[in-house]
Design a protein that fits this description.
The chain has 314 residues and is of the alpha/beta class. The protein has a single domain, classed as Ribonucleoside hydrolase-like (Inosine-uridine Nucleoside N-ribohydrolase, Chain A), CATH 3.90.245. The chain is built from 13 helices and 11 strands. The strands form 2 sheets. A 9-stranded mixed sheet has the order 3-2-1-4-5-6-11-9-10, with helices on both faces. Strands 7-8 form a two-stranded antiparallel sheet. The two termini are 22 Å apart. The relative contact order is 0.16.
């Protein structure tokens, strides 16, 4: 039976890799995409989500969501990484369909309530929509199957500040709400994604074997590779967002540790995720009765990429 999922996304080049994978995979029944600000404005990320669904030839609703964080001022969009359009300059200029009329928060709530205990939420952008859904419908935590999110870092530095990973940094208050809620959460962050190295040769193979989607990914990812090469000093990209979807399909490719997670919400370490392993620091103030989170600490990078390539091959 295919796993019912909602992908909450801020497309974003690595989001495009993730969305195409999910829509191509026989593992998933993608009930919808919910757009959030992050890699670009909410107007642009909603447009990009619609364009990606169209490029995939899929019948998948897209709902527009939050354009700003819960409490902090919105961070600058990472145009140096994803381009002004979020797609490295290759976002299609027009789309044939519009987003659904419902706000993403209501789309999430309604869809989960219509499929109790069956829907996995896969947020791969800032967690604002998910937190707003929890705030509006507290019963959501008992109705969702699980949350598998891309974000955070347990044992590594961040990738936008020394402390913070980008998705958590963009809305730390929302992330703290998600990690504190009483539901099953998997945190797939930099500890795992830094083990998965996507190269230009990998993307060339996608362009050769993956049809229109693979060709689009090769075009869109050029700026992404250039940023990693020129700014970060790497001849590969870390495979962030797709790894969260691949965890859902192939959890055996990842090592996890049961932990509690708290998020620093202000100061110079804002956005830092602090993971306390379940077997350590017992009885410490501030950690009593904290929700349990499965934190991914590593990944079998070659196997993750091989699975992705096999799924995307026509």
């Amino acid at each position: 039976m295919r796993e019912k999922i909602i992908i909450d996304t801020d497309p974003g080049i690595d989001d495009a890799f993730a969305i195409f994978y999910a829509l191509r995979s026989a593992q998933f029944d993608v009930l919808g995409l919910t757009a959030v600000y992050g890699n670009a404005s909410i107007e642009q990320t909603t447009h990009n989500a619609l364009a990606l669904v169209e490029l995939a030839g899929a019948d998948c609703p897209v709902a527009r969501g939050a354009g700003d964080p819960l409490e902090i001022e919105r961070r600058a969009y990472p145009t140096m990484v994803h381009g002004e359009d979020g797609m490295g300059g290759f976002a299609p200029t027009t789309v044939s369909k519009a987003a659904v009329e419902r706000h993403a928060v209501d789309f999430i709530i309604d869809t989960v309530r219509a499929n109790p205990s069956s829907v996995t939420l896969v947020p791969i952008g800032p967690l604002t929509n998910i937190a707003l859904a929890l705030r509006k419908a507290p019963d959501l935590a008992s109705l969702v199957k699980r949350v598998v999110l891309m974000g955070g870092a347990a044992q590594l530095n961040g990738n936008v500040t020394p402390a913070a990973e980008a998705n958590i940094y963009d809305d730390p208050h929302a992330a703290e709400m998600v990690f504190a809620a009483d539901w099953e959460v998997v945190m797939l962050g930099l500890d795992a994604t830094h083990d998965v190295h996507l190269t230009r040769d990998d993307v060339a193979a996608l362009a050769r074997d993956g049809g229109v989607q693979g060709q689009f990914l090769q075009q869109a990812s050029e700026q992404y590779f250039d940023f990693h090469s020129d700014v970060v000093g790497l001849d590969f990209c870390h495979f962030h967002d797709p790894s969260a979807l691949i965890y859902c399909a192939k959890p055996e490719l990842f090592a996890v540790q049961a932990s509690s997670v708290r998020v620093v919400t202000d100061g110079f370490a804002s956005g830092k995720t602090i993971a306390k392993p379940a077997t350590r620091f017992t009885g410490q103030p501030g950690w009593e009765d904290r929700a349990r989170v499965s934190v991914c600490l590593s990944a079998d990078g070659p196997a993750v990429l091989a699975h992705y390539q096999a799924t995307m091959k026509l």
